[in-house]
Design brief:
heterodimer, A: alpha/beta, Rossmann fold, nine-stranded mixed β-sheet, 10 helices, 33% helix, globular, B: alpha/beta, 9 strands
């Protein structure tokens, strides 16, 4: 199946399934600055996924921020700093905590679940979860459609590529990019899962084929927004950068206080809101 | 302007602190450890053998871990328990086995593979039954790490005189508590960005999770503040610290929004053992990563002598 056909099928499946979102206020996380909700909505499968949503108090519309899920069973709740400035939605994809009714993802294990066939790969559904979250966020009346960002790893690139409307993309980590090469660099997880899977008898060609649908450099040409890529090795990321229409590079310093502040300020400046450090000096 | 190094962080020591933890250890001892190791061929490599580990801990719960040992080396190996962070799942510690350790990555209760019975969720663990020290969610969680050390003590391929602890954030905090509860066993502790130290002070210094969970709890239950303070005192690393006898490495990010550096400095001050402090300006919760890992490896190698 071609790349375009694969993803068109995902879009078609998603379009046929109403999200039927349910929002519940969380008083403990609601403050003078913002109202906090849990969100449950339906993605492909059908499967109910979970999100943490916060909407600033006051007169909107506000900039929107989608946080795609990290690789792991738990995602942090959106930080109060973000909750005060953005309509922010943090997604828990299928199998992660709070979205694990019926399917609890294994770590290690999720990265290779169903990977021998692109049509059964778990990340096909996880990508759909991210796209559903994007549709939900952009449908909120409180969100300024001219100021919507997505932040995260490769899933942020994929989401921005497949859903118009993201003017800003902030990529802080990479999982699928050149994964079949990166897996050879060390025995560190999560990429070591690919090596574990191959030891179980799978073929490198099968994994390469499936992963090619998820490599962000394949999605990058369709990303319309300005994209900040925080990188450790710009040379390694060359093919991704060259595929992005409007890239910007941030060379991480590994002084994560400095890096965190830069990444926050970059997005804030794009959307005309104050920069805020998580570390209160 | 904050002055983390000189800030005052105080925690009251419960009068029955030692008895409280002795009772917990006694409960653990009432259950056979019953470790079961299952070799995992596809997870193993040319250099490392990996096992799925299950054992019995506090309250009779079965707890999981990953155990990784060198495939070819001179057993007995030094033992190393790696302790996960708050939102992290333990990864298979192949990299430590590659360095010559018998490495056990513990999944304390509530973590995946150890959450059939106890599953407070994330967020949730920090405030699970936080008004009652006897049923606080962290009680079994702390003791699960102690039991993981006992698994190593039970292993013929581990040198009982060379057992260390390593972790960052929650893993750092529980390294301190475990070393305090097993002072005659633990030979060294590497604790990065230690969490669960100055537990009632930290939420006043940050709005980042997980400490923000306490602010949220008290937003809804403001009258519980004294009971919360009473409970967490039993679990505070500052109350465990004076009991640690093993050489301890502490490393801190001076702009850590997750575990405020004030609490890490307080921990360092409170330790009376041989101790080393590394601080990293402009660093947050990574506390010097990735470069600090070389410091950690050297520290552990100095005290545990892998490859001996």
């Amino acid at each position: 199946m071609t790349f375009d056909a694969y993803w068109a099928a995902v879009d078609d499946e998603l379009a046929a399934i109403p999200g039927r979102p349910v929002l519940d206020v969380v008083p403990a996380r609601t403050t003078d600055e913002a109202t906090f909700y849990t969100v449950r909505t339906t993605s492909t499968g059908p499967y109910r996924v979970y999100g943490n949503l916060s909407i600033p108090k006051g007169d909107g519309p506000f900039p929107g921020l989608l946080i795609t899920p990290r690789y792991g069973s738990v995602n942090n709740i959106p930080h109060p700093n973000d909750r005060s400035r953005y309509v922010v939605l943090g997604l828990m994809h299928r199998g992660q905590r709070l979205a694990d009714e019926g399917f609890a993802a294994a770590y290690p294990g999720l990265l290779t679940m169903g990977i021998d066939d692109p049509s059964t790969y778990i990340y096909r559904g996880i990508a759909a979860d991210c796209l559903r979250a994007a549709e939900f966020l952009m449908g909120l009346a409180e969100v300024d459609p001219a100021r919507v960002a997505v932040t995260g790893d490769d899933l942020a690139v994929l989401t921005a590529a497949r859903r118009p409307g993201f003017s800003t993309v902030r990529v802080t980590d990479l999982l699928f990019y050149r994964a079949m090469e990166a897996r050879l660099k060390s025995c560190m997880y999560p990429l070591e899962e690919l090596n574990d899977h191959l030891r179980g008898g799978s073929s490198t060609s099968a994994l390469s084929t499936t992963l090619s649908y998820f490599d962000p450099s394949q999605h990058a040409p369709a990303v319309a927004g300005r994209t900040l890529l925080a990188v450790d090795d710009a040379d390694w990321c060359g093919s991704l950068l060259s595929a992005l229409p409007d890239p910007e590079v941030y060379q991480v310093t590994h002084l994560d206080g400095t890096d965190n502040d830069f990444l926050d300020a970059w997005l804030a400046q794009r959307f005309g809101v104050p920069a805020m450090s998580k570390f209160v000096a | 302007m904050r002055d983390p190094e000189n800030a005052t962080v105080e925690v009251e020591l419960p009068t029955d602190f030692d008895d409280f933890w002795a009772a917990g250890l006694a409960d653990c001892a009432s259950y056979p450890l019953d470790p079961v190791l299952t070799e995992m061929p596809t997870l193993s490599t040319d250099n490392v053998i990996v096992y799925d580990l299950r054992f019995t801990s506090y309250g009779g719960l079965r707890i999981a871990g990953w155990y990784a040992v060198p495939r070819a080396g001179n057993a007995p190996y030094p033992g190393l328990v790696t302790i996960p962070g708050y939102i992290s799942e333990p990864t298979i510690p192949k990299e430590w086995a590659e360095l010559g350790y018998a490495a056990l990555a513990i999944a304390p209760r509530g973590k995946l593979r150890s959450n059939d019975v106890f599953n407070p969720g994330y967020p949730g663990l920090l405030t699970h039954n936080i008004v009652d020290p006897n049923t606080y969610g962290y009680r079994g969680f702390y003791l699960d790490v102690v039991r993981a050390v006992e698994v190593l003590l039970d292993r013929p391929d581990v040198d009982n005189l060379r057992i260390g602890l390593q972790g960052s954030s929650q893993g750092g905090g529980l390294g301190i508590s475990t070393a305090a509860l097993l002072p005659d066993v633990i030979r060294c502790v590497a604790a990065g960005a230690p969490y669960l130290c100055g537990i009632m002070t930290a939420p006043t210094l940050t709005r980042s999770y997980p400490y923000e969970e306490i602010n949220e709890y008290l937003r809804i239950h403001p009258k519980d503040v004294d009971r919360v303070r009473e409970t967490v005192a039993y679990y505070d690393g500052l109350n465990f610290a004076p009991k640690v006898q093993a050489p301890t490495l502490i490393y801190l990010g001076l702009e850590d929004d997750v575990c405020p550096p004030e609490t890490g400095f307080a921990l360092h001050r409170t330790l009376t053992c041989e101790k080393t402090l590394h601080t990293y300006p402009h660093c947050a919760h990574h506390a010097g990563l990735p470069d600090v890992m070389r410091v950690v490896e050297d520290f552990l190698a100095e005290h545990l002598t892998p490859g001996r």
